[in-house]
Amino acid sequence: MTDETLGANGLIAPQLGTFVANLDHDDIPADIRSRACHLILDAVGIALASTRYDFAHRTLSALSSFGSGDGQVIGMGARLPLRDAVMLNGLLVHGLDYDDTHVAGVTHATAAAFPTALGMAADRRASGRDMLSAYIAGMEVSTRLASVARGGFHQVGYHPTGIIGVFAATLIASRLQGLSAAQMADAQGIALSMASGSMEFLQDGAWTKRMHPGWAGVGGITAAGMAKAGFVGPKAVYEGRFGLFPLYLHAAEQAEMDLSLATQNLGESWEINNVAIKPIPACHFTHACADAAMALRGKHGVMAEDIASIRALVPAGVHKTVCQPVETKQRPQNSYDAQFSIPWAVASGLVRGCFGLEELDALNDPALLAIAAKVTCGDYPDAPFPKYYSGDVIVTLRNGQTLSHREEINRGNPDRPLANAEIEAKFFETACTAVARSRAEHIRDAVLGLDGLANANSLAALLAGNPE
């Protein structure tokens, strides 16, 4: 292993620890702090909406059996031990698969970073300013680490949100506990044994993907606490013989990875700007095809009964996630199947002109099922993946006419971003499914004013619905 491979300053973990330990809040540009607050706002709205679903209440029931504590659960008023509260809050943020995605890293960065920052900052009675800078530091680290793999984790069956999120959570928890850069390097080594997240849920719509960000938070808080107490972790966390990337990627994926991305331009450029907000409550890989189908319906007035067949083209790197197995993609067995289905996204766009939360609950709609059964998938030519999650829908009508629409740059992508005002509108759309508009407005003001908040515990209490 050469110095060039490891970077000019040696191993990756110490460089990341130094960055997180030394990042000064005032060195973070104001627009980055504002965007970060909007990413958090988006996450809060989704978490509140998730409280209406069975998966949230079953998880609360399970975690409550372990005892109570001071950790606050968003929208549910429950108080759990710190790590259990972080676990559940991560599940709520990620529960509807409506949360943000870092495009190059193909990871839901906020879902792990925000619950950890909120929980630790509230526990330590840290300021909103300290919470925000820790969140941003964690986001900058996790997005870069995920980018190293160039989408490779998905190809071998790992969910990068869980695999990478634990390192962001470790560094966030470390910063909020005042660990030194050297201790942060050790903490990352400890977290290496806690990185997890299987993609097996794709086979049967299991709920396990929802728990990955929160479990990353649990691991990160644990790793930071152990490092603070002097527990020793391995040094070559990411690049060692059994480090993260050699261990979790196969030879073909390792050949494509770029370790230099892990530390590239830290503190100079901000990956927060490359985090995409979802306009559709489903896997980001489905969005372009959903929008293409909506465009075809709107432009040509395509009627379901006139369609003979449909071909949806997506990047080769996403087929395993949203095109296979064909049986459950064409006929989803539950809402999670539908969120990871190109056929369902296309059918929703063509039949209903939208792909929202209602379409995830319409699994027995005969019109949707009939169209989904006509959708097959192919490779998008020269796909610019993972920079863009492109999609092309080609509809062949019964009269032989062919109609097509291509979305090269998926909506919400950093090159086609949602503005902060649009994020606020989405927040009210999601939050107000669970809370009154007046409370949602209070929450919005608190989150967007995070920089000036004296005590993060007041925000945690507000989000939970508990009086201080």
UniProtKB/TrEMBL annotation:
Domain MmgE/PrpD C-terminal: start-end pairs: 281-450
Protein name: MmgE/PrpD family protein
Presence of keyword Mitochondrion: no
Keywords, comma-separated and alphabetical: Plasmid
Gene3D superfamilies in alphabetical order: 2-methylcitrate dehydratase PrpD
Species for this entry: Pseudosulfitobacter pseudonitzschiae
Gene Ontology MF term list: lyase activity
Family in the record: Belongs to the PrpD family.
Domain MmgE/PrpD N-terminal: 15-252
